[in-house]
Amino acid sequence: MSFLATPQFLTFDEPLALQSGASIRDYTLAYETYGTLNADRSNAVLICHALNASHHVAGVYEGQPKSEGWWDNMIGPGKSVDTNRFFVIGINNLGSCFGSTGPMHTHPDTGRVYGADFPVMTVEDWVNAQARLLDALGIQQLAAVMGGSLGGMQALSWTLQYPERMRHAVVVASAPNLNAENIAFNEVARRAIVTDPDFHGGHFYEHNVVPKRGLRIARMIGHITYLSDDVMNEKFGRELREAVVDSATGYRYSTQDVEFQIESYLRYQGDKFSEYFDANTYLLITRALDYFDPARAFGGQLSAALAQARCRFLLVSFSTDWRFSPQRSREIVKGLLDNRRDVSYAEIDAPHGHDAFLLDDPRYLNVVRTYFEREVAA
């Protein structure tokens, strides 16, 4: 049974310098905490979220029984990351649309909604903002930083930006940078949004419209990449959505109607996404994904970049994840071993594709549980 979660908000007046050379001031970060911070403040675990997630990592909201946090199967009393032992913190990234200051909020200098004028964000910027919030909570060193996908990139960046402020990093289904194929998928999704007539150059708020068509397509593209071929075939195959006219072929040969179950599923996911996610946020976060590459400053040498890390690591990958393949996790493992860092690595043979990091695979959950019990809590 899930526990009750309560969103909290902290506003920062002091400007935050960004990698782009810009800065942002008078911004708010939404966050949640679970468990109790111990007397010496040594049991804090930071959870970093992926593209369409938020600070609501675990638990449910009062009066909303179906509001489980996105990693509720992983985090909570007696779970893999046990909130009876650890003080867990989830922070919503700047630029998101779930409570922290983002493109839909008011620019303090102009009094107008930021829209397309919201500053470019990078993974490193998010880590710096998270560090500020931890300062405000009086937490100087984290027991662990953990994240999956884009959240794993943030956890990795923590080890390089603040190597002395953490003892462990748990990086799940992630990569040291995006390959060209991933950047290509992101760009197609972005083009779907910016070419929507309702986008209005990112200032659609002023026109009281939402570029839903672009958001739907962006989500459909993304969702295809999160699932494995085996899972899509198992769930949908070539199953038709309803009775058809042609008894010989089973088709109606329509160019407009939704015929196959997979089409119906993708349209449902796209419709749902377009109702709650902000278009400018989607552009901003996918760009941050594209930009992340800690090896760039070291001539492309990941081992040289990872020399800055001091903590111990657990990396987890999934065999059918072709968006963030096991090979990418092994690149990080090799870079850390080149620097004689303490690394544990688990490669889970799971059929679920990239989404596996969110699902209830007992082997995966037990790997994380064992690491937290034997290493993080030691």
UniProtKB/TrEMBL annotation:
Pathway: Amino-acid biosynthesis; L-methionine biosynthesis via de novo pathway; O-succinyl-L-homoserine from L-homoserine: step 1/1. The keyword DNA repair does not apply. Its EC number is 2.3.1.46. It is found in: Cytoplasm. SUPFAM superfamilies: alpha/beta-Hydrolases. The record marks R323 as: Important for acyl-CoA specificity. Keywords: Acyltransferase, Amino-acid biosynthesis, Cytoplasm, Methionine biosynthesis, Transferase. It is an enzyme of class 2 (transferase). Coiled coil: none annotated. The active site is at S149, D321, H354. Gene3D superfamilies: 1.10.1740.110, alpha/beta hydrolase (3.40.50.1820). GO terms for molecular function: homoserine O-acetyltransferase activity. Residues 43-359 form the AB hydrolase-1 domain. Pfam families: Abhydrolase_1. It catalyses: L-homoserine + succinyl-CoA = O-succinyl-L-homoserine + CoA. Substrate binds at R219, D355. Homodimer. HAMAP family: MetX_acyltransf (MF_00296). Transfers a succinyl group from succinyl-CoA to L-homoserine, forming succinyl-L-homoserine. Belongs to the AB hydrolase superfamily. MetX family. This is Homoserine O-succinyltransferase. It comes from Curvibacter cyanobacteriorum.
